[in-house]
């Protein structure tokens, strides 16, 4: 034995001792860190309870309110898979965005977004309102801002507002302009007030907030006006009032030892309705003396001076004088915590974790059922089928081998439609997975809905080759020869249907002047993406799909189809689809509620990691449901499994549409015929896409399952 061989065990023991010491040290430090975190959390909770007992609200820009928000939102700020690290919401919502420092008296533009309402999905542009044109120092309302394709399709547009703001330069009541509106425009304004439309402004990327310390709430935007009931006004009908004065409060932070300049940490508004003293139409408002708008006085809401939205006693037009005021207040809230108040009341990560646990429980249930089939029943069947002596007994026990000569018979009903639907569903799934991966990798920001929609569209277009390849491979297996028809149908079926519906809906939206109506140039852009990029890629995928060899199967197909006996109720239409689609839909129900709230209730959704996990669970659920349903069908000697395997999972889209009906009645308060049509049109599109994705997984997994089990038995 050499000296090196003698020293090898000693080196190994030294290495093991070193590893043991490292494990002990890391464990002790972890325990110590855990104790420190628990102690810090206990202290924060004690401070939170004390502040709450003192009646401190959690929406103000004070240090006490910021401490309460920090405790209430502590779970949202803990990110990480194994090790939870504390992060600010600004870094979570807008990764890589650095704060902007302003100099004293530097002009800061206020941008106007859409005027929208939860009661209707028909938003309008800011300058559709009878509002003042922007001042020259603010820029032009016609200024061009670069918008993504998704932003154009959603009607998102940022324009410079008429309000002039300079850093740390407070100003009292400042008149803007005087506008006269006729009876037609007046009726439209009353309609906006009745349907609770809200104006959205942004300053330094911060949406404007309305806060109430007394009621402890904060909402984005401010209403166009308000309604007073007859028992308040003494009139026979409701009276409508307009908010024509805005009191802006901008909070900022200065920290000379950390940064230079001023950082904006809050943007609040308090709308006021007031009947100003009118001036001559040719007079210069900046030089006119208006008693109701003194620079030293604070304009407040007074029932005696509300501005009603109605014409004069003799029917003359209504003249409105708009004004605003700005107050700058120093705040102790850091720039990194300025987004905390915007997510107050949103569900934290625990709710998303519960949704994942709910989905995992469904998957475990299905896994148990599938394992019972694959490990016990199916293995025993295969073992018995391979025993020639027990072949007769095995036929009495189960009948799935009896259809080995027909199980791979191409579908008798429209193989073209089946292959196109499967290829399109695969394309949808590919684009969604790539979008989620890009969001997790911070390539796109889900807080920017326009950029996210743009990414989905481009990734869907670039995934056209996936649809062409899968559709052509499946169509070739069905012994079909019309490859041109298959390729063209794959390229135009779903995009053509969606484009047609979108164009018809766009005509109605343009007729009512909605901001979501897109221009002809945007429509041409989408059309060019479809015809010049997506369609050629589908042809490329189809070329390689038809060039590939036909998919090989382990059994030969008989010339005459086998008779299908009477099936159990759960294997017949529509019950097989109703049963099969429920569990895939149930696995995403909780997360679906948050997505619907982000789409229709203008809430924030940024949990892309959770969404990817739920997406994977959905796919696993579809695979297992399809396998179980196909096995039960084959045991009933029914070899016509193609369309049933597709609809057993595609019916999840039907459940999604039913869920949209519940969401409409329970969460939305849509008013009018067109908003309901818009809602159902878009939800129908989403439900069809969701059903195609689930159906493609169901058919492909059933195809794999049948090839696997029939390849494991000996067939004469």
Number of helices: 19
Number of domains: 2
Number of strands: 16
Global structural class: alpha+beta
**Biggest beta sheet attributes:** 6 strands, antiparallel
Uncertain segments are: 80-86, 139-144, 393-398
Shape: elongated
Report the helical percentage: 40-55%
Rg measurement, Å = 32 Å
Mean pLDDT: 80
Labels describing this entry:
716 residues; alpha+beta; 2 domains; 19 helices; 50% helix
Q: Quick summary of this structure?
A:
The chain folds into two domains: 103-136 and 145-344, no CATH class; 348-361 and 412-561 and 591-712, no CATH class. Strands 3, 4, 5, 7, 8 and 11 form a six-stranded antiparallel beta sheet that branches. A four-stranded mixed beta sheet has the order 6-16-14-15. A two-stranded antiparallel ribbon has the order 1-2. It has helices at 3-53, 63-72, 89-93, 149-154, 183-194, 230-233, 349-385, 391-397, 415-440, 449-462, 464-477, 483-511, 520-547, 575-586, 589-600, 608-635, 642-650, 652-666, 673-711; strands at 78-79, 85-86, 110-117, 120-124, 159-160, 171-181, 198-203, 206-207, 209-212, 217-220, 222-223, 225-228, 239-242, 245-253, 263-272, 318-330.
Question: Could you walk me through the main structural features you see in this protein, from its secondary elements to its overall organization?
Answer:
Keywords: Membrane, Signal, Transmembrane, Transmembrane helix. It is found in: Membrane. It is a multi-pass membrane protein. Belongs to the nonaspanin (TM9SF) (TC 9.A.2) family. Its main location: membrane. Mean pLDDT is 80; it is low at 80-86, 139-144 and 393-398. It is elongated, with a radius of gyration of 32 Å. Helix 9 (415-440) packs antiparallel against helix 16 and helix 12 (483-511) runs antiparallel to helix 19 (673-711). It is 50% helix and 12% strand. The chain is α+β, with helices and mostly antiparallel strands. Strands 3, 4, 5, 7, 8 and 11 form a 6-stranded antiparallel sheet that branches. The longest helix is centred in the first third of the chain and has 51 residues, at 3-53. It has 2 domains: 103-136 and 145-344, no CATH class; 348-361 and 412-561 and 591-712, no CATH class. It contains 19 helices and 16 strands.
């Amino acid at each position: 034995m050499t000296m090196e061989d003698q020293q090898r065990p000693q080196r190994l023991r030294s290495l093991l001792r070193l590893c043991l010491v490292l494990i002990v040290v890391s464990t002790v430090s972890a325990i110590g860190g855990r104790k420190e975190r628990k102690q810090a959390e206990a202290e924060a909770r004690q401070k939170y309870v004390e502040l709450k007992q003192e009646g401190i609200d959690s929406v103000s820009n004070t240090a006490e309110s910021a401490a309460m928000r920090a405790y209430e939102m502590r779970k949202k700020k803990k990110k990480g898979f194994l090790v939870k690290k504390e992060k600010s919401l600004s870094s979570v919502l807008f990764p890589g965005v650095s704060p902007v420092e302003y100099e004293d008296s530097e002009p800061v533009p206020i941008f106007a977004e859409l005027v929208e309402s939860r009661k209707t999905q028909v938003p309008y542009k800011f300058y559709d309102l009878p509002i003042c044109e922007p001042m020259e120092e603010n820029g032009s309302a016609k200024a061009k801002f670069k918008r993504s394709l998704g932003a154009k399709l959603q009607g998102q547009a940022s324009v410079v507002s008429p309000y002039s703001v300079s850093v740390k330069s407070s100003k009292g009541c400042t008149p803007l302009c005087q506008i006269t509106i006729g009876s037609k425009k007046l009726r439209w304004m009353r309609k906006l007030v009745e349907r609770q439309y809200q104006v959205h402004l942004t300053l330094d990327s911060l949406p404007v907030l309305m806060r109430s310390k007394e009621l402890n709430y904060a909402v984005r935007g401010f209403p166009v006006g308000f309604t007073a009931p007859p028992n308040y006004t003494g009139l026979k009908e409701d009276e409508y009032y307009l908010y024509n004065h805005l009191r802006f409060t901008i909070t900022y932070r200065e920290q000379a030892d950390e940064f230079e300049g001023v950082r904006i940490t809050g943007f609040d508004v308090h709308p006021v309705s007031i009947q100003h003293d009118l001036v001559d139409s040719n007079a210069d408002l900046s030089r006119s003396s208006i008693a109701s708008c003194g620079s030293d006085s604070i304009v407040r809401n007074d029932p005696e001076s509300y501005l009603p939205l109605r014409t004069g006693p003799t029917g003359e037009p209504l003249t409105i004088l708009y004004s605003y005021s700005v107050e700058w207040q120093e705040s102790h809230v850091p720039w990194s915590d300025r987004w905390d108040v915007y997510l107050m009341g949103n569900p934290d990560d625990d709710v998303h974790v519960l949704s994942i646990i709910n989905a995992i429980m469904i998957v475990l249930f299905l896994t148990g059922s599938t394992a019972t089939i694959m490990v016990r029943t199916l293995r025993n069947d295969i073992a018995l089928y391979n025993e020639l002596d027990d072949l007769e007994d095995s036929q009495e026990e189960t009948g799935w081998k009896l259809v080995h000569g027909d199980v791979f018979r191409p579908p008798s009903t429209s193989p073209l439609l089946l292959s196109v639907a499967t290829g399109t569903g695969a394309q949808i799934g590919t684009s969604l997975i790539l979008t989620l991966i890009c969001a997790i990798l911070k390539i796109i920001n889900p807080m920017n809905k326009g950029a996210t929609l743009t990414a989905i569209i481009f990734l869907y277009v670039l995934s056209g080759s996936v649809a062409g390849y899968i559709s052509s491979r499946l169509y070739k297996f069905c012994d079909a020869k019309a490859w041109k028809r298959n390729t063209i149908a794959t390229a135009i079926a779903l995009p053509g249907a969606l484009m047609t519906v979108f164009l018809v809906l766009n005509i109605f939206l343009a007729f009512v002047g909605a901001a979501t109506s897109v221009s002809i140039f945007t429509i041409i852009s989408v059309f060019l993406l479809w015809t010049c990029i997506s369609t050629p890629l589908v042809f490329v995928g189809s070329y390689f799909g038809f060039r590939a060899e036909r998919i090989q199967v382990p059994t030969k197909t008989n010339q005459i189809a086998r008779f299908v006996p009477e099936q159990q109720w759960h294997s017949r239409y529509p019950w097989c689809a109703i049963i099969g689609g429920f569990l895939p839909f149930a696995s995403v129900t909780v997360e679906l509620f948050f997505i619907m709230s982000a789409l229709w209730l203008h809430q924030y959704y940024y949990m892309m990691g959770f969404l990817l996990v739920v997406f994977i669970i959905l796919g696993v659920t579809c695979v297992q449901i399809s396998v179980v349903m196909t096995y039960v069908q084959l045991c009933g000697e029914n070899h016509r499994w193609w369309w049933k395997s597709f609809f057993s999972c595609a019916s999840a889209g039907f459940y999604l549409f039913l869920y949209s009906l519940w969401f409409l009645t329970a969460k939305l308060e849509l008013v009018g015929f067109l908003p309901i049509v818009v809602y159902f049109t878009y939800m129908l599109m989403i439900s069809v896409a969701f059903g195609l994705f689930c159906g493609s997984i169901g058919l492909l997994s059933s195809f794999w399952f049948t090839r696997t089990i029939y390849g494991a038995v000996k067939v004469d």
